[in-house]
Write a structure and sequence with these properties.
mainly alpha, Helicase, Ruva Protein, domain 3, 4 domains, three-stranded mixed beta sheet, 19 helices, 8% strand, disordered N terminus
Amino acid sequence: MKVCLISGSNGITLKNTVKHACVKIKIIDTNHICFGSYNALYMSLGKFFLAGVVLCELPYADSVILDLEATWEESDNRTPLICFLSQGSDPSGQIEILSKTKEIGKFLLQFGMISIKFTNEPPQGIRASLKRTYVDVSQDLLDYSNAHQWPRLLYATAFLHTVVLERRKYGALGWNVPYEFNQADFQASVQFIQNHLDDMDPKKGVSWVTICYMLGEIQYGGRVTEDFDKRLLLTFLHVWFNERLLTSDFRYQINTAKSILDTILSMQPKEGGQRGGETREAVVSNLANDMLGKLPPDYIQHEIKEALQKMGAILPMNIFLRQELDRMQKVLKVVRQSLQDLLLAIEGTIIMSASLKDMLDAMYDARVPEHWRKVLYEPMPIIYLYAVNTTSGKDPNLYECPIYRKPLRTDATYIGSIDLETTEYLPSHWTLRGVALLCDIK
């Protein structure tokens, strides 16, 4: 994430046209915000005001290390300090040292607060993210080698870098543990591939095993701490450095669509609305009465206990049945009590609390109330496990599927792994899709 930091010194304020130009650049073309902002400042303030500008990651320009001491000596109270901070840069330490040296700590502590900040947010989607990665690739880097493998290797590395970054927004479906992959990983990987091509024996060609090991175990794999994440990363490398593979974007699209629909529903009028001549309260009241009439009565605990004793209380299936009944009893209690409270609130007998108001809105919009979601029980499939005597070793066509107690895929929720038969696809097909078994989806 690039940050454009622009501040005025001692009352000197940048012209509104400059601010507007920078904002337009951010909206229209986020990939060139630093370069475009520099041009906007140059056109408005002139060369004199940009004499001390620090440029980082401009196209075909070498990065300059910021020297605050030299900047302080060259500046005065009429020249604004303008900085373009590259990814990962943090001048706060140097600023703190300078403030102690010059004994002007109060001014510098307020420096960040009075500055105008522009954030270049990461692009959305594989195509946009891949394009953003190639923006930092110079023509000299593209023409680095005459080897016919070079363009393919560069693209494969850029694609790998894009995907490992994109998978972070999918939560546990992307990576079990969120990793801070950054541009330095990509640059280090490209540098290794360049060195590998320089030392490559033309007769032997590219050592794919070496490249997969270096990128999967060291460059990117050095950050990966979870075993199944490491397996996924290595599968990416072994597949993509031989053939191209497009990753499904279905989960991200579903979440985006759901977020948009929820936003649209939240913007609908909440007061005085009518549907077919009925008010919102009347519609929800009729719905609540209908649901109360369909709810089964609460279970009688002593009758359940007696019935289970007759069937065998310690049998595994009966223990499971008792747990199911306890969960269902909790669901019935919460739903029935909340519906009764909502009816009383609509009648004006009790106060319409915030939770009841949210429940009214959810029922009117045909959504499940939020506090119902916390107690609703969803049945889980049962897997029967049995031992098999074999001396032939593990079948390579079996997919080692991890089992987790919760959707959060960490060592704390990991139970074990089972081998599942896969006939139509190779095990790598399911590895790339992050297939796992969950004991609970909440």
